[in-house]
Amino acid sequence: MAPTGRWTYTAMTAVVLLMCGVTVTRTHPPMTRTAGSDESQGSRVRILSPQMAHAVRDGISRSPTFRRLVDAIDASDGIVYVEYGVCRNGARGCLLGSLRVAGPSRILRVLIQKTQLEDELVVSLGHELQHAVEVLSEPSVTTSAEMMWLFETIGIRSGDSFETSEAVRVSDEIHRELAATARRGGGTRVVDACAEVRDDSNY
Q: What are the pLDDT digits (tens) for 161-179?
């Protein structure tokens, strides 16, 4: 039986992820839709803040790993809305557990802590997009309860918290890729890529 109730996900490691990487240039279709936009088409990753959208575009151009996550969501039946917000336990980002279905699309929402440098924001968002990919890669996951059951299956649990090794690996890769370009254009700060997946049926 799938677990029910309120649940959260936080990074299980106290490791600070140091990231370095490579510069990649490639034309990519517009991936953001900000509040008030009248775009009828675009990425299935919907950024609701113009300020965050700038950082995400930069992340796409500099991190092939981040770009692959966006491409994977664009190729899925999911739509991921991303906005600034406060997550529990001081997490830098969180995937809300209130999965919804609207027509042919599964809808997920991500919150990102606002007080981060651009590179930190990209790492945090990449971590959460990996969790979104984990959900959207399973066509049978169409409810919040099934979403939790998925993380019970693929994640590491501590109390009511979960982490997946793939999300930690992805965070590390994105940080490495961003740091390589930062060495050419300036420094970068170390980021603790902690995150949270939480159930919030009233979101």
A: 678 999 999 999 999 999 9
* Cα angle for residues 170, 184, 120 (degrees, 5° grid): 35
**Phi, psi (degrees; rounded to nearest 5) at 83:** -150, 165
Give CA–CA dist 97/108, Å, rounded. Answer: 8
Q: Tell me, yes or no, if the pTM score tops 0.70.
A: yes
Model confidence at 159, in pLDDT bands (50, 70, 90)? low
* Pair 197, 97: CB distance under 8 Å: yes
- Print burial letters for 112-145: b (CB count within 10 Å at least 16), e (below 16): bbeebebbbbbbbbbbbbbbbbbbbeeeebeebb
